[in-house]
Amino acid sequence: MTGDPRVCIEGVSHAYGAVTALEDVSLDIADGEFVTLLGPSGCGKTTLLRIVAGFERPSAGRVLLAGEDVTGRPAHKRATNMVFQRPTLFPHLDVFANVAFGLQVAGVGRREQHARVREALELVRLEGYERRRSHEMSGGQMQRVALARALVNRPKVLLLDEPLSALDLKIRLEMEVELRRVHRETGATFVYVTHDQREAMALSDRIAVMNAGRIEQLGVPLDVYRRPASVYVAQFVGDANVLPVEVVEAGAEEATIRLGDCRHLVRSSRAARGPAWLVLRPEAIEVRADARGTEDSRTLHGVVRDVAFRGTGFRCRIEMPALGTQVKAEGRGSTPPFDVDDAVSIDWLPESCWLLPREHGQAVPEPVPDPDPAEARA
Amino acid sequence: MSPGRFTGFMTLAGMLFLWLPLLVVVLFSLHATASLSFPFDGFSLRWYERVFENPEVRAAVRNSLVVATSTALVTLGLATLAAYGMSRSRSRWRAPLSLLFFLPITLPGLFIGVALLIAFSRLEYSLSLVTVTIAHLVYVFPFFFLLARAALERLDPALEEAAADLGATGWTTFRRVTLPQVWPVLVGAACLAFALSFDEFVITFFVVGPDPTLPLYIWSSLRRTIDPSINAISTLLLVFTVLLFVVTFALTSWSERRRRGTVDALALTGVAERG
Fold this sequence. Notes:
The complex is a heterodimer of chains A (378) and B (275).
Chain A: E1 7-16, E2 19-29, E3 34-38, H1 45-53, E4 60-65, E5 68-69, E6 80-83, H2 95-105, H3 110-123, H4 139-151, E7 157-161, H5 169-186, E8 189-194, H6 197-203, E9 206-211, E10 214-219, H7 221-226, H8 231-236, E11 241-250, E12 254-259, E13 262-267, E14 274-280, E15 286-289, E16 300-309, E17 313-320, E18 325-332, E19 343-347, E20 353-357, H9 373-377
Parallel strand pairs in A: 3-8, 3-9, 6-7, 7-8
Antiparallel strand pairs in A: 1-2, 1-4, 4-5, 9-10, 11-12, 11-14, 12-13, 14-20, 15-19, 16-17, 16-19, 17-18
Helix pairs in contact in A: 2-3, 2-4, 3-4
Chain B: H1 3-29, H2 46-53, H3 55-88, H4 94-102, H5 109-122, H6 129-154, H7 157-165, H8 170-198, H9 202-207, H10 214-224, H11 229-268
Helix pairs in contact in B: 1-11, 2-11, 3-4, 3-6, 3-8, 3-10, 5-6, 6-8, 7-8, 8-11
C-alpha cells in the first residue's frame, strides 16, 4: 500500500448549467477514516459524494482513489460502493439476490457468493432474511440490506448519502450504533453525507462543514464544536449565541471583551483589538436568579421569557436589554430555579466561549434554522 | 318518469345500441340454418366447421398471424429501445423527438395507407405481406411506444444508479434491473400491437398484395355473397381480439400493482418518498 490518501479530492468544481454546486473543493481522506460532509440542502455535499461515486463528472478538478486518478471513470468501474438516501433495493429480487448482485456481476463463484452474502447479512444483523422481499421489511431493515449489498463487495470506500434521513428517530439512533460498529469491524473508509449535525458529531472522525459549494471547516467533531471557523459553522453545528462584542485588551492567552456595559475575560490566543463575535454555547451559560440590589457592571442582567423542560435539563430564552437581543441558555436538573418574567443574571467561564473576527458594522447574523428532516424529505 | 329511471333507461338503450349488433352476429354464427334473420331455428356449429374447412379462410388466418406476429415482435424490439432511450435521455431534443415518435397516433389510417402506397410504388417495391407488415409497424409503433415509455419513466432512476454502483454495465443494468421490472408491460403492449395488427383494415387495404389478411378476406367475401360463415369468422376474430386486450390490461395492471406494492410497503414503514 502506498502512502497516498484513500480518497483525494483535488480542486473539484461543479456546475449544473448556470448554478454552481461546488467551488474548488479539496479534501484528503485517510484509509479507514469516517468523514462526514455536513451542510444544509443545496450546499453541494451530495454532489461531491456523487462525484466520488462516479455518477457526476466534475467541471474541474480531480478525484483520486488510493493515488489513482479516477475522474473520468464511470461508476461501475470504481471500487466504491454507495448506500442511498432511500433504500434502493431491487423490487423484483429477494434479499439474497439483492446482496449478491455485485458479486454476480463481478462473476464470483456460487459457493463464495453464499458465504459472503451470509457474512454481510451477519454484519448487519439480518441472518435468516435471505428470502424476504423488500415489501416484507421495515425501512430500517431495508436500509440494512442496502448496507449489506454495498459491504459484500468489500469496498475500500463506502459512500453513504443521508442513509438514515428517511427513518424514524428511534430507528435512526439504533442505526447510528450499528454504523459505528460496522465501521470498526470492516475497517473501510466511510464518507458520509448528512444535514443532521447531531448525527455528524456522533459518527465521524472528522467533519467537513459545507456551505454554498465550499468547505467552511474541516476538523474533528470537538474542534468544530468548540472552535468553529466561522459564524456559519458556529450556528450550524450545535446551538450557539453569537453576540457582537469589542475586544479591548488582547493578551497572549486571554482577552478582555466589552459586551454591552460590562467587561469579561475570554480565553483566546488569537484575538485582536477591535470588533469581534462572541460564540457562547447555551450549556456554557450559567443562569442565576437575581437577588434585588446586586446589580453591578460585572454581571449581565436579563428577564426570562421562556422555559422548556428537555428531559436531561431545561432550556430558556433570556431577554438581555443591554445587548438588545435574546440569549439561549441550558441548565441541568429537573426544575429551573426561576420562572418566566423572573429577573436573572448570566455568566460563563472564560474558557467556554470562542471569539471570531467581525467587520465593522456587520449585522448580527441570522441564525441558520435547525434543518427539519420532514422538510428535507419534501 | 323520475330522473333516476330516465338515466337507467338511457343507459340500457345505449348499451343495447352498442352491444345488440354484436350479439346478433354471435347468435347467427350459431344458427342451424342459412337464414340471417329471425325466426331463429336452433343452434349448431356447422358454420364454424365450414370456416375451418375452407382453405381460403385458413390461408387468410395464416397471413394475418404471420403479419401480426412479425409486427408485434419487431415493434417490441424497436419501440422498447426508442422508449428506453427517450425515458433516459438528458438531451434537449428529447421532448420533440418523443413527440415525433408518438404523433403518428393522430394520423388517419387513410392517410397512412395512401402515403405508404405512393412510397412503395415510387420505390417500385411490389406489394406483399412484407408491405402490410411495414404499414402495420408504422401504425402500432406509437401505441407501444406510449405504453412502454410510461412504464419506464415510472421506474426509480436510483435503482439503475445502484446497479451501476455495484459494477453493472449499462447493458447488464438494463437486462437485470430495468427489464425484470417492466417486462409485463412490454409483453402486454406486444399483445396490443398484435391485436391492432390482426384486425387492421383501412391501411392494409391500400398496401396489401395478392395474399389477403383475414379482415380483407371477410370484406371481399361479403362483396360476393352473404354467407353465415362470415358471422362465425367475425365471432372468432372478436373473441380473439378481446382476449388479447384482456391479457394486455391484466399484465399492465399486474405490473403496476407489483410496483405499487413496494411503494406502499415503504409508506407503511414510515419511509417517505423523496419528491
